[in-house]
Every structure is written in structure tokens, then in C-alpha cells.
Specification:
4% of the residues lie in helices and 57% in strands. It has one domain (2-22, 36-683): Beta Barrel (Maltoporin, Chain A), CATH 2.40.170. The chain is mainly beta. The strands form 7 sheets. The chain has a 22-stranded antiparallel barrel. A 5-stranded mixed beta sheet has the order 1-6-7-4-5. A 4-stranded antiparallel beta sheet has the order 14-13-38-37, with no helix packed on it. 46% of the residues are buried. Strand 11 and strand 12 (228-242) form a beta hairpin. The chain starts with a helix and ends with a strand.
């Protein structure tokens, strides 16, 4: 394994050195300006034209780094840290934006549809195959996506149905991992164009009895006729996971009594999900040059799980607690909006949207005994009487309007207002209704402009409202928590220079949070509570360098300071004021750096590193985890139609704590171990 890691690192270094020293005739550089984004305004705009922190990661960059997971895809994104795995299973992930790492604090959007609806982001069923780009917005979600996010938006945009390039690939790696996939342009006649993706992946891990298998099908068809468009997509995912165990903490550090990769789930434990989604939409002109957009989607998800956690770090009877639960969720999303053309340098948009979700979980809990050394998993009979339940109905309605005014070519002022009306119930409890406005103001000013180059300053204010999260815990149905609210302020600088070769973005933010939902453990089962007042603030800096001859470099550094302002929580029966304590699992510094060499033909290579600073594992700030750095590298060779790849992730094999379990008390998931993967891609 060590020889494989050294081979990857050396290959990447040799490729970069060889290219740098090669004698090639001078050539005019081709500068790739970052692509458009639509998540902030619903209209294609360059990130430097919007008064917010936005970046666009192209599909070509993802393929150059062979990024197939959310952690790989966003490893170089500014101010973002992705912890792989988590309570959602080894196929999941827990993102962090603005220093806040919570399972529901961000919004995941796939092809203009919230992926998870009115509940929580469905990360474990996200596919990054055949992606055109990923848009990353830091800070609260725009008014166009409802009451859904406080700290960030990830918008995954797949290739258009009319794209003509097809791909076939196969790969394999350590821990018995491997997969096959195809992205196919379907031959059609007439105005309708279609495209399909079919793939299957099996990923193993160093953790005992931990893996996942995922089958996925995506079909999309569209009709584009001059200024009109209609589209339909269907997505199906079949996920089977053998979950890992989080690592227990004793006092100020992770316990040494439990082996690194021990699995305390009952034998045959699983987290399975079948998810099917269908969506359709249209865009067309209407009166006075305005454009109408309509989107509707329906999703059904069936989740089945049988799992457990260590509850006593000792070889005693009943030292583990488990549960079996069946969850069925149906959700609907609909949006209708009208965008008027610019009149007197003013552009208006207005619309209405709806998010409906109904879900029910039935389950049972049990205790069992596991050996602390993790030598074997305990066989436990699955409960047949599911006598506990957790159910919810959520209806989020909204009407929104926004305006953008450009009084001069260098000044853009924008504002938006949204009226939220939310209704939800838990179990047999009464419905709770909230009606509350939210809105935003923004401005961007060009200090210096010359062609593609510029220096611009921006600022924004966003007020956000979001109903409390619901996670189908068997401790639920105890009433609806208070809604979360926030006020955020952001300002910064956007610079492009050297004829578009260099991009730089510097931003500073502050977010005051009320009623943040956080997790606790009650009777060995997870529950949610409101966390009083918290504050997140920081500074983030990122730069892109686009060199000639297909060389791209990126670096970022962020300083985050998330603290409790006023929050009292009981520990061992004693109420404790946490004001001034750092928010748990929030690193003060994170940084990334990457270098890619990706010509259309010949050798390709990429290297990247991610630094995570120290962070407290607990709310009382008595357990400080040290900083760590992970290193990734890859190399390959491209012909006109075939690419061979060799990639390594976490080559230093760091196993630091990266996310906290919301099921096991004082337990943490570690960084996934080193993986090596080889593959081939055929393009035609």
C-alpha cells in the first residue's frame, strides 16, 4: 500500500515537472473564465456579478480530479469542509459552511429542485455523474428556494439532455471496491433530445463490516425550440449500506479502549433506501417580453434501517442500544415565477412556491451486548413489533419578489422579499403555523474595470427564517420546536486580473442565530432541542490561477469563529450556561490547495491538500481535537477517446474525528481511511 501511495505522488510530481521543463513554442493562452450560476437569481450570471460569495466548479474540473463524492468535489471550495460518512451511513456526508456543521443547515439542490424537499438534504442518494457544474453559494439560501438554509447552497447541475458526448467507465480499488457506469446520448429524431445515466458502485472501507452498494438511473429529456423549453427527468437510486460505528469519547479525547475500526452494530446491520424522483418544467415567453418558468417534482423515499451504538465503554451486559425503523416519505415541490426584461436598467422577478412533505417512521428499540474489543458482531433478532412511531406533515408556502437595478455600468443594487407561511404537525399533536417575512439586500460596485479584469466590492444583508428540523427520531412526536431565524451580514472584494488568469475573492461575514436546532441523546435515543443564541463570524479568502497549457491552481484559507451567545443545557442534571464557548466540531481555520494539469490528450495529474484546524469535540469545550491535513493525488493518460486513471485519497491515512454522531452520546465518526482506485473512461 505504501508503494502505491508513493507511486501516485511521484507520478504527479514527475508529470508537473516534465511539463514545466518541456520546450514548447510560445502560444497564446486560452483563459477559461468561470461559468455561470443560477442558484442566486434564477438567471445565468457570472459569480463576480452577484453580491454574494459564490463559486462555480465545472464538470471538467471534477473529471480532471476524478471527483465522484461530495467530499472530493468540494475539497477545494473556499470555506467549506465535507466530513465523509456520518449517521446517514458511509455513503453520506456532513458539510460545514461558515463554521457550522449541521445535517440540515444547508440546502442541496439538484437541477433546480431541492434534493430532500421540506425535510433534510438527501446526500447519500446524490449522484455526481455526468455533471455540467456545481454552484456553491455561501450564506443563507436566496428567497427563491424558501425556508431551507442558513449557511450555504450546493446546486448540482447535470449535463443538458441534448449533450452529445457519451461516456463508459469502469473502476476498482482497495477494500473490494469497484463499479461500472455509462452516460449515454440517446439517438432521437425531432425536437426532443434525451440522455441517460446508469451506474453501479460498491465501496468498501477499512472499518470492519462497513461498505455500501448503490445503483442509480437518471433519465432526462428536453425540447428546446428557440426561446421555449420543456423538460422531464426521472431519477432512481437503490442504496444498500452496512454502517460503521462512531468512536466513543472518554473525557478529553477519543477512547483507547475501543479499536480504531471496530463495528458495534448488530450483525447484519443495515441502512437501506430506495428513492424515486420525477420532475418536469417549462420556460416560455409571455406578455411584454416577460418569461414564465414552472417547475414541479414528486419524490418517494423508502428507508429501512437496523443498527446500534455502544452506550457503555465496558465489557458489561447490555452495553449497546439499537433500533429498527421503517421510514416512508413523500414530498412535492412546485415553483412558478415570472422574470421581466430590464426596463430603465431595472429587472423584476416574482413567484410563488410550495414544499409539501409527509413522512412516517415506525420502529422499536432494544439493548444488546457486544465485546468491547470488537472481535465479533452480536447476532440480534430484528424486532417484529414496531411499537414506536415518528411522523410529520410539513407545508411550506411562499410568495417572493426581487428587483435588480443597475444605475450605472459599475453599480448593481438588489433586493428581495419573501413571505413564508409554514404549517407542520408531529404525530397526533396540533398543527403549528408560522407566518414570517424574510428578505435580502445587496450591492456590488466596480472600482476598476478593464475588459475581463476588474476590482469590485460587494455587501449583502440577509434575514432568514426556517422551521425546526425533523429527523424521524423515535423520541419525536413531542411537539414542534421553535423555528430557527438568523440575520447575516457579508462584505468583500472580487478581483480578476492578468486578462482573466487570476481570480480572487475575499469576504467577511457575521451571522446571529436564534433557536439553532441541535441534537442531544435521551434514554440512548437521539432528540432535538433549540440552542438559544449563537453567533458565527469569520473571514474567507480564495484564489484561482489559470495558467497556459491546461494548468489550473486553486488555494483558499478561512478563519471561522462560531460561539454560543446564550444557551443553557443540562449536563448530568446540572444546567450549564455555554455563553462564550466555541461551537462544537467547528474548526477556527480551514485551508485547501490544489494543482491540476488536464490537457485534452496526453498525461494528466492532480494534487490537493486540505487542512483542518483544532476544534472542540463538545459544547463545554473540554475536549480539544488537534489539527490535521489530508493529501490527495491522481495521475492518468488521455488519448482521443480513452483515459486511464490512478487516484489516491487521504494518502496520509489520517483518521481524525470529523463529525459528531447524533445517535450515540459523545461519539464521533472518523475520516475515511486511505483509498486507492484505478479506472478507465471511454468517451465518444
Amino acid at each position: 500500500m505504501k508503494n502505491s501511495c508513493r507511486a501516485i505522488v511521484c507520478s504527479a510530481a514527475v508529470l508537473f515537472a516534465a511539463r514545466a521543463g518541456a520546450q514548447t513554442p510560445p502560444q497564446k493562452p486560452v483563459v477559461g473564465i468561470p461559468g455561470v450560476e443560477v442558484v442566486a437569481t434564477r438567471l445565468p450570471e457570472a459569480p463576480h456579478d452577484v453580491p454574494a460569495s459564490i463559486e462555480v466548479i465545472s464538470g471538467d474540473q471534477l473529471r480532471a480530479r476524478n471527483a465522484t463524492t461530495l467530499r472530493d468535489a468540494l475539497s477545494l471550495a473556499a470555506g467549506v469542509a465535507i466530513a465523509p460518512g456520518g449517521d446517514g451511513g458511509p455513503a453520506g456526508a456532513v458539510p460545514e459552511f461558515w463554521g457550522l456543521r449541521e445535517f440540515d443547515a444547508f440546502l442541496l439542490v439538484v437541477d433546480d429542485v431541492p434534493w430532500g424537499g421540506a425535510l433534510n438534504p438527501a446526500i447519500s442518494t446524490l449522484s455526481l455523474r455526468d455533471v455540467e457544474r456545481i454552484e456553491v453559494l455561501r450564506g443563507p439560501a436566496p428567497i427563491t428556494y424558501g425556508s431551507t438554509s442558513f449557511v450555504g447552497v450546493i446546486h448540482v447541475v447535470h449535463k443538458a439532455a441534448a449533450a452529445t458526448t457519451s461516456y463508459f467507465d469502469a473502476h476498482g480499488g482497495n477494500f473490494s471496491s469497484g463499479g461500472l457506469g455509462a452516460d449515454i446520448a440517446i439517438p432521437t429524431s425531432g425536437a426532443w433530445k434525451s440522455r441517460a445515466t446508469v451506474d453501479f458502485d460498491k465501496q468498501g472501507f477499512k472499518d470492519d463490516n462497513t461498505s455500501y452498494s448503490r445503483g442509480h438511473v437518471l433519465w432526462r429529456t428536453a425540447k428546446v425550440d428557440a426561446d421555449r423549453k420543456m423538460w422531464i427527468t426521472a431519477d432512481g437510486t437503490f442504496l444498500r449500506q452496512d454502517p460503521a460505528s462512531p468512536h466513543a469519547r472518554e473525557g478529553a479525547s477519543l477512547s483507547t479502549k475501543t479499536p480504531l475500526d471496530a463495528n458495534y452494530n448488530p450483525a447484519g446491520g443495515y441502512i437501506d433506501e430506495d428513492r424515486f424522483a420525477v420532475a418536469a418544467g417549462l420556460e416560455r415567453p409571455i406578455l411584454a417580453g416577460a418569461r414564465l418558468g414552472v417547475t414541479a417534482s414528486f419524490t418517494h423515499a423508502a428507508q429501512r434501517m437496523f443498527r446500534g451504538f455502544l452506550t457503555n465503554i465496558a465489557d458489561v451486559a447490555n452495553n449497546a442500544s439499537g433500533f429498527k425503523e421503517n421510514i416512508d416519505i413523500n414530498d412535492f415541490y412546485g415553483d412558478t415565477h415570472i422574470i421581466w426584461p430590464s426596463m430603465s436598467n431595472v429587472r423584476f422577478m416574482t413567484g410563488v412556491d410550495a414544499l409539501f412533505a409527509a413522512g412516517e417512521g415506525t420502529g422499536a428499540t432494544f439493548t444488546y451486548t457486544v465485546p468491547l474489543n470488537g472481535a465479533t458482531q452480536t447476532s440480534v433478532a430484528e424486532p417484529t413489533s414496531l411499537d414506536r412511531d415518528a411522523e410529520t406533515e410539513r407545508r411550506f408556502l411562499g410568495a417572493y419578489a426581487s428587483a435588480e437595478w443597475r444605475p450605472t455600468t459599475r453599480v448593481t443594487l438588489s433586493g428581495g422579499l419573501r413571505m413564508n407561511a409554514t404549517t407542520e404537525s408531529r404525530g397526533e399533536g396540533a398543527e403549528v403555523t408560522h407566518t414570517k417575512p424574510a428578505g435580502s439586500l445587496g450591492a456590488i460596485l466596480g472600482l476598476w474595470e478593464r475588459g475581463d479584469d476588474h476590482v469590485r466590492v460587494f455587501a449583502n444583508y440577509r434575514n432568514t427564517f426556517k422551521p425546526a428540523a425533523f429527523d424521524f427520531s423515535l423520541q419525536e412526536n413531542e411537539g414542534v420546536l421553535d423555528p430557527e431565524t438568523s440575520n447575516s451580514y457579508e462584505g468583500g472584494l472580487k478581483v480578476r486580473t492578468m486578462h482573466g488568469r487570476v481570480d480572487l475573492e475575499l469576504s467577511a461575514f457575521r451571522m446571529d442565530f436564534e433557536n439553532l436546532v441541535t441534537s442531544i441523546v435521551v434514554n440512548n435515543q437521539p432528540a432535538l432541542i433549540n440552542a438559544g443564541s449563537t453567533r458565527f463570524q469569520g473571514v474567507e479568502l480564495a484564489t484561482d490561477l489559470r495558467f497556459p497549457n491546461s494548468v489550473f491552481a486553486r488555494g483558499s484559507v478561512s478563519f471561522h469563529d462560531g460561539k454560543f451567545v446564550d444557551f443553557v443545557q443540562a449536563f448530568d442534571g446540572t444546567p450549564t450556561q455555554l455563553a462564550g464557548k466555541r461551537f462544537e466540531m467547528s474548526a477556527k481555520q480551514i485551508a485547501s490547495a490544489g494543482l491540476m494539469y488536464a490537457p485534452e490528450r496526453g498525461f494528466v495529474a492532480s494534487v490537493g491538500l486540505n487542512y483542518t484546524g483544532d476544534r472542540y469535540l463538545n459544547k463545554r469545550n473540554t475536549a480539544l481535537a488537534p489539527s490535521f491535513t489530508t493529501f490527495d493525488a491522481g495521475a492518468g493518460y488521455r488519448t482521443g477517446k480513452i483515459e486511464f486513471r490512478l487516484d489516491g485519497r487521504n494518502l496520509g491515512d489520517r483518521r481524525d474525528a470529523v463529525s459528531e454522531s447524533e445517535f450515540g452520546d459523545a461519539q464521533y465518526y472518523r475520516m475515511s481511511s486511505r483509498t486507492i482506485q484505478a479506472g478507465v473512461v471511454v468517451r465518444y
